[in-house]
Design brief:
By secondary structure, this protein is α+β, with helices and mostly antiparallel strands. It is built from four helices and six strands, in the order βββββααβαα.
Length: about 120
């Protein structure tokens, strides 16, 4: 009788940082590369990276527990890709601080009011 290989448990990771994130994990031979908000794999302003081993993700959470990108929820994971997409849509309005500047905004760079007052 042939043994059935047990499927590896994976997570889908969402990253709201514009260019994604490269994570160096102690004891892991590869760099974990996360898609960012500007990737073609973005949903609701979060780059989605599927297929990350759940064990590796747990190690990332332990090693980077104090990292602002993890503590502030700019990077998060769920077991099901649809759950990750749903959570990304719920968090779409959350500001990361890396949003583009609107030059037409009142008082913003390039606004006529700031040029006239100079």
């Amino acid at each position: 009788m042939a043994k059935v290989a047990r499927a590896a448990r994976t997570v889908s990771v969402a990253c709201k940082l514009p260019q994604g994130l490269h994570i160096h994990l102690t004891g892991h031979p590869h760099i974990i590369k996360l898609h960012g908000a500007h990737s073609p794999y973005a949903i609701a302003g979060h780059g989605i990276t599927a297929g990350i081993s759940a064990d590796v993700w747990e190690a990332v959470k332990v090693q980077y527990a104090d990292a602002a990108w993890l503590k502030n929820g700019f990077v998060f994971a769920n077991g099901a890709p649809q759950d990750t997409a749903d959570e990304a849509e719920e968090r779409q309005a959350v500001k990361s601080g890396f949003e583009p500047i609107d030059p037409a905004a009142p008082g913003g760079p390039g606004a006529l009011s700031s040029i006239e007052s100079a």
